[in-house]
Amino acid sequence: MSKRVLIISYYWPPTSGSGVQRWLKMSKYLPQYGWQPVIYTPENPEADVTDQSLIQDIGPEVEVVKRRIIEPYAVFNAVTGKKKGTGAINPISVSEHKSLMMRLSLWVRANIFIPDPRCLWIRPSVRFLKKYLREHPVDAIISTGPPHSMHLIAKGVHRATGIPWIADFRDPWTGIVFFKHLPLSRRSLRRHRRLEQSVLKEADKVVSVSELSVQDILSVLSPDYPYKNKFHVIENGYDEADFADITPADLPGRFNIVHTGLFFSNRNPQILWKVLAELRRELPGFAGDLHLIFAGKTDAEVIASVKDAGLGDCLTDLGYRPHHETNSLQKGADILLLPLHKEPEAAGALTGKYFEYLAAGRPIVAFGQHDSSLEQSLAQTRTGRLFDWDEEAPLKEYLTALYTGTTAFDPDPDAISAYTRRSLAGRFAALLDTMQEGK
């Protein structure tokens, strides 16, 4: 008989973007390991982008429970006249040229809505779930954040019921790259840290996406914290089914560089645009063969820097595309572009996009920090190279070799296959099973 697991997630189809994929896919495969998912998610989330095609990926065994949420962002947008999808992708990390209203909204977000603007959903959700679980019991709880209010909902339910609980950190809390840009008062900072520590201490298991990310989360606790063995790594991954019947996109150039998903301004690899502009002048035929394709929400600053480098004529900015179309673009690429955030806090990031790139089987050119989780994984899977933000000569040499075919692309299929969503769901199920043994 299947056991039931309550999964508390802000992101769920038709909401799209990186936040939805991890638990959409885990819930699809958990039933194969004896766990029936019960998703608790908002009925009316504030979502810039939706993708109706993702609904087809919800498994038939998955039960979805929705409740309305009060969204401060919706009120702010109504007051300021801001429409969904306008402005910078991540205004928290853009420090210059903020309006007075934007500065005020960031202060309110940092000091009033703790840990995040979904905090108004915590108490109503705890009340609802305590009643719901009396009538529809579950064997375990998983919360996934950000937003980290989901962990506080789980903590409240866990305290009231004693149901075993896994806190899944797709990104860190106070260690996330934009946290230092928040205009926090000292009191608010202490409150963030106190809440974060309470989640880490009270959860039966804590999961994050890389070893470096786990170490970053552990650093919040004292060095002599005695229960470090409850912290685990379960990476993001790729769904083989997403690529099974995907035909590579027929792209316009002979050397197509593709980026899919969100493209933040603080991931802008300006050294790449400089090197590509030089290669257009220096390599015979390269100017006509090069094509840049962005599929997803791209910050205006990134587009401007591409044009400033003289590459505007070879850029196609498609905007958001349905998930299956981005998979087709990934498979049709000659190079898949993967820049991380430039801040040192991004060293542990292994994004869901990276694993889809692995499944696409095309060379990856990444930008980030050496010795990061991404660089280690690229070496393990033999799927590409990572460059620092000012490594001009090695980058130019590598791109030239890829264009001329003088470097071999020889990925390791065994290393890549370890990251299927089915396999990773099995690892989550194993953690859930161990918590049942302790009941």
UniProtKB/TrEMBL annotation:
Pfam families: Glyco_trans_1_4 (PF13692), Glyco_transf_4 (PF13439). CDD domains: GT4_WbuB-like. SUPFAM superfamilies: UDP-Glycosyltransferase/glycogen phosphorylase. Residues 108-240 form the Glycosyltransferase subfamily 4-like N-terminal domain. GO terms for molecular function: glycosyltransferase activity. This is Glycosyltransferase family 4 protein. It comes from Candidatus Coprenecus stercoravium.
